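Tutorial handout. Part one gives the primary structure; part two gives the three-dimensional structure as tokens.
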Amino acid sequence: MEVNVSEILKNEGFKKEFYFFEDIGNNTIEFFGEKIYITKPVEIEGYAINYEGKIRLNMNIETEINRSCSRCLGSYNEKLNIDAEYVFVINPDNQSKDEILIKGETIALDEYVMDEITSQMAMKPLCKSDCKGLCPKCGKNKNYEKCECILDEIDPRLQVLSSIFKKK
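Part two.
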């Protein structure tokens, strides 16, 4: 996915709109050891404009990813709708730390799209906000099955403290 900015570079105020609807990469993202699947093609809509000799690129990214819940380990789909903005410059002398230097007359969006997708992903993903997770004793998914396990076990490191209360 590339946006040709040659026409934009020549004309102050020139605006070019773009639209992409396609699969990116191999449809998987490696995110802190978790393999995340992109289940729908990525839809990118936006524009690039020459503003004061810099290219301001705005885009909206929509897709759907498949993840594993961190509590119950179940698989679930999550829709993403992301707005992003980048500023590109031609001259490295005019570049601030938030601006990206353009090399050539095209901007490849793949890397920026992947960065935006990963920045929107939760570190501890949940299939739903009230996910009950797995029973630590029997392993049943408490969202779907009721378990009768008693979880009154005391942490062995604190076992000594229980004897204090039994003496009284």
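Part three, for discussion. DSSP finds three helices and nine strands in the chain. The CA atoms of residues 159 and 165 lie 11 Å apart.
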